[in-house]
Write a structure and sequence with these properties.
about 375 residues, Aspartate Aminotransferase, domain 2, Aspartate Aminotransferase, domain 1, 11 helices, 16 strands, binds pyridoxal-5'-phosphate
Amino acid sequence: MSNDKFIPLSVPNIAGNEWKYVKDCLDTGWISSVGSYVTQFEEMVAGFAGAKYGVAAVNGTAALHISLLLSGVKENDYVMLPNLTFVASANSIKYLGADPLLIDADPDLWQMDLDLLEEFLENETDEKNGDLIYIKDGRRIGAIMPVHILGNMCDMDRFLSIVKKYPLPIVEDSTEALGTTYKGKSAGTFSPLACFSFNGNKIISTGGGGVIVTDDEALAKHAKHLTTTAKASPDEYYHDEVGYNYRLVNVLAAIGVGQMELLPSFIKRKKECVAFYKKELTGVADIRFQKELPGVETNGWLFTIQTDKQKELLDHLNRNKILSRRFWMPMNKLPMYKDCVYIQQNDHSDYIYNTCLSIPSSTSITNEELAIVVKEIKEAIG
Ligand SMILES: *Cc1c(COP(=O)(O)O)cnc(C)c1O
C-alpha cells in the first residue's frame, strides 16, 4: 500500500440520480426559484427527520438566521451558544443584532456543557415580564442554540428539562446531524425550529443549501414567506415585511433529491468507517474518541480523534497527502466574538481545539484508503 493519491477530508459523493434530475431542470427550463424539486426536497428532508414541514434555504446559515428571527430574537438580545462550533452559528445570531453568550464544551462529549448551562441559568439569570434576563447587565436572553457537534448529541432529556424551566426558545443547529437520533428521535425534532445544512462537506450536499424543519404549520408558512422576499400577492409585487432572498434554486434542490435517495447508504458507510477507525485506533498512543451517550446513534459525519500529539500527527498526515483538520477555532478566539460573555471554568474548548483532529470521512472513501490513514497515524505517533 503506497499513498500516491490525495485522500480528502469529506467530499460530496454524487452517485445516484443527481445528473438525471438536474438535466430535467435544464431541459424543462425550471432552473430557478420555483420548481417541483424544491418542494420534493423539502418534503424528503422533513420526512426523513420525522418533522411535518421543511422549508428550503440557500444555505444552513440563512436557515439559522430565519429560525432565530421567527423565535423572536431581537436586537441587543443574547443567544446562548456553545463556544465550540462553526462560525456560522454565531454569525446567524449577529445578523439580528444579537450577541452570542458562549458556553464552554463538555470535555468528553465536546457538546455544550450542561452543568455550566444549568448553573448559569440558576444563578445568573432572572425573569422579568416573561423575559429571561442576564442579571449582570440586564440584557434579555432571547434564545438558546444547541449545536449537535460532529453529528453527536448531548443528553437531550437533561437539556430539555433544564431549559424548559425558563422562557427560552430553542433553535437546534442540526446542520451536522442529519440522520442522528437520540432515543430513536431525530436530531432536528427537539425544538420548534431546527436547521440542516447541505454544504459541500456535510453528509449529503446540494453544493450549498439548507432546510428549516418544524411541526408548526404557521411557522413553516412564515419561514417560506421570509425566505422568498415576503411577497404577499401572487400577481403583484406587494411585499408585506422585510423579506430575504434566501431561496434554494430548483437545480440545487434536484441534486438534493438525488442525494436524499442515497442518504441511508451514506449513513451506513459513515458508520462502517467509524467502526473501522475505532477498532484500529483503540490503544494507539494516547488516542481518545468523542464520547457517545447511551441512546445516541450518531450519523458518523466527520470522524475526529483526540491526542496530545496533535501537531506531529497533523503535519505527518498532511505531508502524506491525507487531509486532516483541527476543529474550528473556538468562538472566543475570533476577533469579532472575543469580547462575548463566555461561561467556563477550565476552558475545555481550548484543550479540545489543541488536541482534536478530524480525519478522512468521505462516504466514497475506499477500505484501502481507510487502511492507509490508519497506517500513517500509527507511523506518526504509534
Ligand atoms: C455547516 C454548518 C452550518 C451551516 O453552514 P452553511 O455552509 O451555511 O450551510 C452551521 N453550523 C454548523 C455547526 C455547521 O457545521
